[in-house]
Amino acid sequence: AAPSKATVGESGIITPGGRLIQLPHGVSIILEGPSAALLSNGDFVTYESS
């Protein structure tokens, strides 16, 4: 079974559904919630629903 929340590291995110999102160089996560993350470059990453 897939984890119920995202796994976040310095260089990327593994979403609850198993999708790997590589962060661009110099970009970090400034806010993380149960269904999405806001990045320091203004991008918004939405996780797929499980």
Notes on the protein architecture:
The chain has strands spanning 7-8, 12-14, 20-22, 29-32, 36-39, 44-46. The protein is mainly beta. The strands form two sheets. Strands 1-2-3 form a three-stranded antiparallel beta sheet, with no helix packed on it. Strands 4-5-6 form a three-stranded antiparallel beta sheet, with no helix packed on it. It is 0% helix and 38% strand. The radius of gyration is 10 Å and the shape is globular. The protein is built from no helices and six strands. The chain has one domain. Sequence repeats lie at residues 6-23, 30-47. GO terms for molecular function: structural constituent of cuticle. This is Cuticle protein CP498.
Quickly list its features.
50 residues; globular; mainly beta; three-stranded antiparallel beta sheet; 0% helix; single chain
Specify the overall morphology: globular
Average of pLDDT: 88
Lateral strand order in the biggest sheet: 1-2-3
User: Helical region count?
Assistant: 0
What's the oligomerization state? single chain
Q: Work out the radius of gyration.
A: 10 Å
Q: Main β-sheet: number of strands, strand sense, barrel status?
A: 3 strands, antiparallel
| Helix-strand topology string | EEEEEE
What's the N-to-C terminus distance? 10 Å
Structural class: mainly beta
Low-confidence stretches: none
Count of separate structural domains: 1
Share of residues in strands: 35-45%
DSSP summary, beta strand count: 6
Q: In percent, how helical is the residue content?
A: under 10%
Organism: Cancer pagurus (Rock crab)
GO molecular function, one term: structural constituent of cuticle
Keywords: Cuticle, Repeat
Pfam families: Cuticle_1 (PF08140)
